[in-house]
Structure formats: structure tokens, C-alpha cells
Amino acid sequence: MILPALFRLLYSVSVLTLTNPPAPSFIIPVTSAGKVCTLQNSFQPGFVGKGDYVIGGIFPLHYNQEMPDLNSTYRPPPVKSFRWAQTMRLAVEEINQSPELLPNHTLGYKIFDSCAYPLTGQRAALAVLNGISEEDSPTCDGASPLLAVVGESGSAQSIVVSRILRPFRIPMISYFSSCACFTDRRKFPTFFRVIPNDDYQVGAIAQLLFRFNWTWVGLIRGDHEYGRFAVQGLIRELQGTPVCVAYQEMIPLLYNRKKALEIMQVQKKKEVMRSSMAKVVVVFSAEGEMTPFLRDYMEENITGIQWVASEAWVTASVFTGSEYDPYLGGTIGFGIRKGHISRLSDYLQTVNPRVYPDNVLVEELWEALYGCSPSKSARSQFPPCSGQESLLEQHSAYMNTTSPRVAYNVYKAVYAVAHSLHNLLLCEAGSGPFQNNSCLQYYLQEVTFNIGEEEVNFDLKGDSIPYYDIINWQRGSGGNIEFINVGLFDGTKPAGEELTPTYGWYRKAVRRGEPVCCFDCVPCDSGKISNQTSENCSLFVTLSAVFTVFFYHRNTAIVRVNNSELSFFILFALTLCFLCCLVFIGEPTFWSCMLRHTAFSITFSLCISCILGKTLVVLAAFTATRPGDNIMKWLGPKQQRGIIFSSTLVQVVICAAWLIDAPPYPSRNTKYERSKIILECSVGSSLAFWCVLGYIGLQACLCFVLAFLARKLPGNFNEARFITFSMLIFCAVWLAFIPAYISSPGNYADAVESFAILASSFGLLFCLFAPKCYIILLKPEKNTKQHLMGKEKK
Predict the structure, then answer these.
(1) CA-to-CA distance for 407 and 347, rounded, in angstroms?
(2) Bigger pLDDT: 453 or 511?
């Protein structure tokens, strides 16, 4: 192979002299007369642009899943990542047209294909060190004024390329290699990158797992340094946390279906993906390896996995098809921060077979986009086409430039080289740190510039500022997967504060027809933000606590006074009142609309009826002062139940008439907001709605009057006072409800009604039961019949 011979013959070069760069020798020692190094096969660059200084570009224009042969005759299959290469060309053209950056100098470029494979990446690195074209130096002895290399995508390829460039001190700026291994300046002294170090990503993933309480996870990685270092870093981050790793598996670099199925099935009595209790799987792998792996995963019909994706595949457009959603929908991960390249969309449309009639990559692009061949070559298996077709919306995988991520990194990398070269050329003779304006790497290390609002620079290890977008895969309107930005990781913030939501707060949106554990993160609408989740059920907890206290102390005087049965009835009715709010949540349906107002009105009528019965008992007990007065016999337990039943029955009859005559129904409100259709419940009959509210108001007013009359009756614990206060709060809430409800449009009316239900229920619970709980728990010495009746000895 060429590589060992190359390293045997490389001479030590300390600096890169731009005016006269050293020419790396590709000549293999002559073993016999007439034998010299010759290229075994032409390896032409995909695109070439001439200039005073040349930037090399290495991109995975194809993805390889098979071992390329070692005699350099391997030919790669169809085009990928074509847009990244065009972004580099665009950046170079912009710089050459700029009057401020590198005036009087031009940049050129040579772009090669690595096929996302280390051996092919090695071949591209050797080719980029040659002249502008291999045809110019068929005996491997030509060299170009190579300034720097922008590449590579995968960390495994970048390791190979960086080692080849290292002896020549040619800096390399990667746009997608995030392996933490590159921070070792002894091994990679000329390596820079515009993507964050994986140490930040694994820390972010650890925070994510802990925040979502995912404590039992599986780990899958690719067979390369990127995956190995990332998994080691994540395990290190998880030490001392509740998160445990159930299994670790590796996808072979040369994909093997048998090995992949072992990862998905039970192997050697070890439970893995299908059978493991760990339903959260973190994957550090590249898009090229994940594509066949996920294909087999879908064929095995494994579902119920919550995927946590690394930046290498979390925004891969190949997985956006609708067929992936049942298996990958809900995936969350950390993606490269998106940017904006204003001219990219227009530039991509200029790349077509008419402009580049002999370019194989452009031909393959057309075959991928249109399924036809613009050339008349016999080797093409596609029907012919003119090559003048226009790029359409369905070509979003290529034309979507609204939020470039990797392409934006390529853009920054080219500008970093240009700014560094600009600073180097401004250095006056004798005043710089090196002689003859020689070391670009120094200026690259020190460069600082802005693209838009983002500052670009490198630390001492060649790393850039750590930013990530938090990406969630959600189902789009057409069933396809959309990458939704749901947050930001800012590595410059203090520990524990790096994760922040983009829009403030998010809610869990359960997917229709899927288990409740499957959800998407959906931004809360304006005015609908709550920092409490429904799992807290703090309403319900308070009621349960009061019920527990009363039941445990049910034989004490404070509970038994004025019929303890009524107290438990009131607690039961209040529970139903609180639960009524649940029917106001969610999309209105025919049944939920009928249940909303009727359930609320009947439960509140039941609650007020119980309080009315208790009020009558209090009033009768303290007014029956004459001997032989038998008024209490008319208000015994049976009579009290009769009062409650009959009072509630009236409300039931009103509601039944309402449902029979003009029941509530779901409707679509398009009058409030033109841009939105609001799904709401129409009351059906406004008269019936106000009748049920009026009856509850009548009960409350009657209860208030009777309690007010009994407020000054003797005794240390006169429950009528607290009933009076509770009815005042109840009436105040519902009197305020009427104008608020009438003036609230659309779905805000439901929010107003829910608030009125909760506020009045809390008022009743607090006024009626808080005083009793206070005596039971904090003043047990007063929990006697003598004290309550005011007859205790002094």
C-alpha cells in the first residue's frame, strides 16, 4: 500500500510556508531499474476550483457498506451529502468576491469523496495532497499549494486524514467529527473542528436521562473511535446517578445482519432490545451504519423503544419517511446548532447537468432526485432526461436550506480558514511569531470572527463553543417525521443550567392510537403554561388527607357533631366537584360536551344540598330549647338524606330535560381567530345552562341565609359561622364567573369555568374542614363534647 511507504519517506516539516510549500514525495523507492510509483487508478476530485491558495474538501458523497478493494479500483454507489460540498464551493466564491476578506488573493478548492469509510478517506487525503488534478502528476510527484483541509464527517475517517496531514503541518477543520479523542494535542496537533466535543454531548445526554427519570437504559454504538469514546464518556457521566446501563452493544462497521439481529434478540441468555426491560436506548452511531440497522429493526417489528440519538444521526433526512414513524417517532437527541446561509438555496439551483455536463456527481444527483439520467451513457440504468428539470418542493432532502446544520458547519470552517489566512497575510515582516509568514495553524488557533450573531473561535484543544439544539422527532401532517427544535444546550452556562427549552415550556402530547407512554413534546400555547404536571394531582391529595384525618378520628366529638355522615357526604361531593375539571380537558366530543355541564351542575347541587342539610341540623339543634320540643325528630338521619336526595333530584330533572331537548355538542369556532379553528363545546340551550346555574345559586343563597341566622348561636364551635363564610366565597366566585364567562371567547370560556369550579371547591373545603382539622391535629384537648357545647368546667 502507498501509506506505509509514504510515512517512511516523509521528511520533517515544522511549518507550512505559503509562498513555497513543501512538496510531499509520493515516490516509492526504486527496487529495480525503471520501476517508480505510478497511480494504480485515477481518483479525480468531484469538484475543482483554481486559486492562489487551495483548500481541500473531503465529504462522504457516498455511503459505503462494503469493504472497498485494496487495489484502489473501488467505485462508490449513489450520491449523498452533496449539499455539504456545494456549501464549501459557495463559501469560497463568496470569499473571492469579498472586497474586505483576502483582497487581491483568491481561494481554490479540491473536493474528494471519502465514501464514509476510513480506507477511502485515506485515499482522498493522499489525493488532496497531490496537484490540482491527478492527470497533472501521473507519477505521484506533484503537489499543490494546499492551505488546509475541510473534513471529514466521521471521526474514524478524520483520524486517518489527520494522521496523514500531520507531518506536513497542514491544519484540518472538521465539520462533523465530534470524538473526544481529538482533544489530545500530542496525537492530533493540527486538528480543529466547528462541532462541539462529544464530552459536552454525553454530559447533555446524562442530564436528559436524569431529567426524564429514565433510569434503565441500553447503549448501542458504532464500531469506531467515535462510538467507543462516547459510550465511555456517558458511562463516566452516569456514575453516581440513578441511571443504570442494562446492556452495551456494537453495530459492526462492515454491517452484518446476523450480528445486528443478535443485538435485537436474546443472546447468550442476555436480554437485549426486544426482551430487555430497558425501553430507552441511547445510540452513538453514524447515519450510514444506522440505515441498514434500522431497516432490520423495522423488519423485526420491534416497537416501544424510546430512542436517544447522537448528533451524528438525529437530523438524518433519510429517516423522515412515514414508514419510520411507528418505530422512531418520539426520538430525542442533541443536534448540531442550525444556522442561516442566505445564498445557499439559489446556489444549489445553479448546479445542474447543463452547467456540469461531464460531472459524474451531478449526474448521480439527477438520478437520485428524478430517477432519470441526463447523460446518454450506456452504463446508466435510468431512463434519459434533458437535465433541465427544475428542483421542486419534493426534493426537500436536497433543497431544504431553512435550517442547515452540517452545511452551516462547513460554511464556518471555510470562513475560519479564510480569516486565518487574512490575518497571516496582514502580518508585517519581522513582527509576526514566525518567519516568512509561515504558520497558518497559529493564526487559526487565534482567529475570532462572527457569522451573523454567532462568534466562531477555537480553544487550545481546537474545539469550538459547545452549543446543541435539542431535537424531537414528531409526526408531521402528512405522516412523515419532522425534526422539531424543542430546546437548547449551552455549554457556556454553569453546570446544571445548560439545558433550556426554546419556547419556554412544553407539554406531553399523547399520540392517537398508541400507548400513553408514547408522546411528543409540544410547545405550550400562549397563556396555557403550567409548571405542574397532571401527575401531581394536588387537588386530590388534599381531599385524601382530609378524608384520612376524619376517618381516623371519626369517633371524636368534633367529627360526630351535627352528623358525621353529612361531613363524609360533603367530602365525597367535593371530590366529584374537583374531578369535574377533567372533562374540560382534551378535544371536545359528543359525550364529553354533554358530560361537562351536567356533571358539574349535579355534583355541585349534591354538595350544596349536603351543606343545606347540615345547616338545618345546626339551626334546629340550637333553637329547640323548650322542654318537649320534638323538632329534631323531623331532622333525623333519614330526613336529612331525604332533603339531600330531593334537592339534588330537582337538578337531575333540569339536566335530563336539557339533554333531551337541546344537548351540548362539539363545534368549531372560526370567528375568534382567523388563523385558528378552535374546537369547543356549544351549550346547546342557553336557557337550560343558566337554569342549572340559577338553581345552584338558589341553593347557595338559601344555605347562606339559614347559616347567617344561626351564626350567633351559643357554643364554642358553631359550624354555622364557617358555613356562612363558605357560602360567601362560593357566591362571590360564581357572581364573578358570570361576566367573565360571557366575555371569554372560544376555549377561554372553558378555562374560566374550570377556574370557578376549582376556586369554589377549594373555598368550601377550606372553610368547612380546616377549622375541624386544626382542632383534631393541633388542639386535641378541645376535641370534647363539653368544650364544643360551651359547658366545660372553669
Answers:
(1) 13
(2) 453
